[in-house]
Amino acid sequence: MKKILCLISVFMLIVVLAFSLSSCECKHELQEATCTTPRTCAKCGETFGTTIPHKYERVACGEYMRCKDCGANSNYSISEHLYLGNCGEIGTCYYCDEQSPEILEHTYKGNVHTGVLKCNKCDRQMCAEDIQGKSTKDLTGAERAYIYWHLNHYLTALSSSGKYLYTENEAFQMTATKFNLSVLYLKNDFWGGGDFIDNHDFYAQYYYK
Ligand SMILES: [Zn+2]
Ligand SMILES: [Zn+2]
Ligand SMILES: [Zn+2]
Ligand SMILES: [Zn+2]
What we know:
Elements: H1 2-23, E1 30-31, E2 39-41, E3 47-48, E4 56-57, E5 64-67, E6 73-78, E7 83-84, E8 90-93, E9 99-103, E10 108-110, E11 117-119, H2 128-131, H3 141-156, H4 168-179, H5 183-191, H6 199-208
Antiparallel strand pairs: 1-2, 2-3, 4-5, 5-6, 7-8, 8-9, 10-11
Helix pairs in contact: 3-4, 3-6
The structure holds zinc ion (4 copies).
């Protein structure tokens, strides 16, 4: 009797072992992940990891981009027109041939060492005359960057002996004269933040982009 019990328990053990072996025995046949399903075993359906990103493509100007694999719309990325043409003229959209609503601006890029702001499409250089006679609320971002560079330059210029070349007042006065702006405006609004515009952002944008 004892022997039979022992045989039964050995048999049970074998059965349990065989079962547990067979349950981890599915040799997964993994299908690659797509943008809608993670990697999935074709045999047992078990999934691994996550889905891969959608492959968004342009559909048309002014419309959301769409995934080329599953057709899902991107809900945040609207395709913009890409207007091409000469600076200072109406442009034409590369994709849909529509005319630009406004003339094309120069795309200035600054040299932080020399202060030169140059359009990388037509090579035009910004000059003080562009700004002279403008009202301060009409200053463009590039013009603000240009003024900022000069102000910063005069305020921090050092002589060969390491002393400041200009006093603060002189620096503001020189910038005011160059661009025909008031010292008060430059001190309080432009540099001091009274404009509620952070002109340093424009400086960083045009000179360090
Ligand atoms: Zn499997
Ligand atoms: Zn997709
Ligand atoms: Zn377009
Ligand atoms: Zn240009």
